[in-house]
């Protein structure tokens, strides 16, 4: 199955209405703090908060949510699972969480009650309720952790389902339907993020969303929205501008599509979080609409490995089959010595050791909160392998030489920005011992520097392929917040510099201000304007930010990377303007320096707000967060 555009659309347009889920489940850690029906945060000590009186494991924010969810909760076997069967699960199963199993119980109940479980599809391991279940046989044959989870989970599901009062659909293999449902959840569910990017749970949507295929260069994104409580029906959704297309699909698959389209009033999750698909590139009528399932900052081999591990398919999108490889893959994966070599003269770089060292440092930081050890290990790796000026005699015998746009550097920048920010905040709150409080400013400066080069490097990739709009939005607001924190950590009030900070940015097209459709040429021009503004400001503060950071001192500029070689796309500024700005290179934290850093912070947040409104819409949590930061600044200006 695939989804194709029913008409030509510009970027920044919603392609679907708000689609209600078939089944949802909060992650275990959020069961007591969020409503199991609508996923909204529960108010503390509120008389309106209610719980299931039998299992006491799920809570609701209102009587409406309780009444809309209680029948599914009890009838699907979830309540029985909490009361009788959770203790039978292995420690590993419980540690990893039970949201997928509980979502599968709910999904199977909903499909059975609406006649969407076909014995033919179950017996042939093809689909269940219109959701793809292909690949389950390969998953079980491979016998890895996913296979173990399916086998144990299906046993727990079967036990919980048999304990309920209602009868249920059974097949010759009594566990096949449970395995199919659990596999359908594993391969079709999405992490629900409603606030600050926290993955609070998972949701499984019907064909209106699940039939959107994956691409490593997607042309659409999706966002989640809470269902309004004042609606009697599930959805006042607009007509979808993307329609399914396929050949040779069984009639009962289309039955699932027509069920979802025809009767929105009887949706099983009346208040469950809804999903909206949005266009991020211009799409012609009849073109396939694709989203992404994975992290796009990976090699083709790593992307294929991720897709096969979870979904059991090999991607053949335009990025994966491109020959020669796309510009972003060339930059992300190529050794610094090969940036200016022709394709046929390049040897595959060996970076596995660096990947392993990097993941070890990140893992130790995540598990033990030893941010200093993480910084030391990663910066040592970068210092040894990241070079700006390359001389033939110096490179003999080296396995790899990294450049600032290499995928390994992206991962390193993310980890270092996070670790230094953690150290700075810990020093500010007095919770970090063993380091002098005078180091606060140095930690904040390092966090700002790594956040800025991360945003700048991603912006470089984005200007070549706008599929990277989504991660760029997150990196931009991270850079803006880190730059703000840097100025706040210095002695003196931030607001005294805000009035001098230059808050002038590229004019945005009128259509984007109204969040209507946007022509790509206007969008491209606006983004280049933001990039030029960031570049201009970075010339005045970059050398100051990287003082004391040897691995970043090798990076001439965090926004424009044309200095790396002729392979790199051209500079954002004309050569004469670049030369004039390069001459301005202050290194002390003067009043002018603070004003410049504040202007750069405001530019990053404003750029983030612009991109997020296009990619996700103006009501997305990132758009709202960026707007809040900018409104807070305007009070002092």
TrEMBL record:
Signal peptide range: none
Domain of life: Eukaryota
Protein name: SET domain-containing protein
Lineage: Eukaryota, Viridiplantae, Streptophyta, Embryophyta, Tracheophyta
């Amino acid at each position: 199955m695939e989804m194709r555009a029913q008409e030509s659309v510009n970027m920044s347009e919603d392609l679907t209405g708000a689609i209600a889920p078939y089944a949802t489940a909060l992650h275990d850690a959020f069961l007591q703090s969020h409503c199991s029906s609508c996923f909204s945060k529960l108010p503390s000590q509120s008389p309106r908060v209610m719980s299931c009186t039998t299992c006491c494991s799920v809570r609701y924010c209102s009587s409406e949510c309780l009444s809309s969810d209680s029948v599914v909760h009890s009838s699907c076997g979830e309540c029985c699972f909490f009361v009788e069967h959770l203790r039978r699960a292995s420690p590993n199963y419980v540690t990893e969480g039970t949201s997928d199993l509980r979502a599968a119980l709910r999904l199977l109940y909903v499909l059975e009650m609406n006649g969407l479980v076909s014995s033919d599809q179950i017996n042939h391991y093809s689909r269940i309720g219109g959701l793809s279940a292909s690949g389950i046989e390969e998953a079980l044959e491979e016998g890895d952790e996913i296979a173990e989870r399916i086998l144990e989970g299906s046993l727990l599901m079967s036990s919980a389902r048999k304990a309920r009062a209602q009868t249920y659909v059974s097949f010759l293999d009594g566990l096949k339907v449970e395995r199919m449902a659990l596999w359908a959840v594993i391969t079709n569910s999405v992490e629900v993020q409603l606030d600050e990017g926290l993955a609070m749970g998972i949701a499984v949507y019907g064909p209106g969303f699940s039939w959107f295929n994956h691409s490593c260069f997607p042309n659409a994104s999706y966002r989640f929205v809470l269902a309004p409580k004042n609606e009697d029906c599930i959805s006042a959704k607009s007509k979808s501008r993307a329609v399914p297309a396929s050949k040779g699909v069984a009639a009962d698959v289309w039955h699932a599509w027509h069920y979802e389209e025809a009767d929105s009033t009887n949706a099983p999750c009346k208040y469950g979080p809804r999903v909206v698909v949005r266009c991020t590139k211009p799409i012609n009528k009849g073109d396939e609409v694709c989203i992404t399932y994975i992290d796009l900052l990976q090699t083709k081999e790593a992307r294929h490995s991720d897709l096969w591990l979870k979904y059991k398919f090999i991607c053949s999108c335009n990025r994966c089959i491109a020959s020669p490889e796309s510009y972003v893959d060339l930059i992300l994966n190529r050794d610094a010595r090969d940036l200016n070599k022709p394709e046929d003269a390049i040897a595959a770089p060996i970076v596995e050791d660096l990947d392993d060292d990097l993941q070890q440092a990140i893992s130790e930081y995540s598990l033990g909160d030893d941010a200093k050890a993480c910084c030391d290990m990663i910066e040592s790796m970068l210092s040894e392998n990241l070079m700006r000026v390359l001389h033939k005699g110096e490179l003999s015998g080296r396995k790899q030489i990294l450049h600032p746009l290499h995928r390994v550097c992206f991962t390193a920048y993310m980890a270092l920005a996070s670790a230094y920010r953690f150290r700075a905040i810990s020093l500010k709150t007095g919770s970090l011992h063993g380091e002098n409080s005078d180091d606060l400013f140095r930690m904040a400066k390092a966090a700002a520097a790594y956040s800025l080069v991360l945003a700048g490097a991603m912006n470089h990739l984005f200007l070549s392929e706008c599929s990277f709009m989504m991660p760029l939005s997150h990196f931009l607001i991270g850079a803006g917040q880190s730059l703000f924190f840097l100025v706040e950590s210095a002695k003196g009030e931030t607001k005294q510099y805000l009035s001098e900070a230059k808050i002038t940015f590229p004019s945005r097209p009128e259509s984007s201000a109204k969040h209507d459709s946007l022509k790509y040429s206007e969008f491209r021009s606006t983004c280049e304007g933001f990039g030029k503004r960031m570049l201009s400001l970075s010339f005045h503060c970059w050398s100051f930010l990287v003082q004391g950071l040897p691995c970043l001192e090798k990076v001439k500029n965090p926004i424009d990377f044309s200095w790396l070689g002729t392979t790199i796309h051209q500079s954002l500024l004309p050569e004469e303007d670049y030369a004039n700005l390069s001459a301005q290179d202050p290194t002390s934290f003067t009043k002018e320096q603070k004003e410049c850093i504040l202007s750069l912070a405001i530019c990053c947040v404003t750029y983030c707000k612009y991109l997020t409104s296009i990619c996700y819409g103006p009501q997305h949590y990132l758009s709202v967060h960026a707007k809040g930061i900018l409104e807070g600044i305007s009070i002092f200006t």
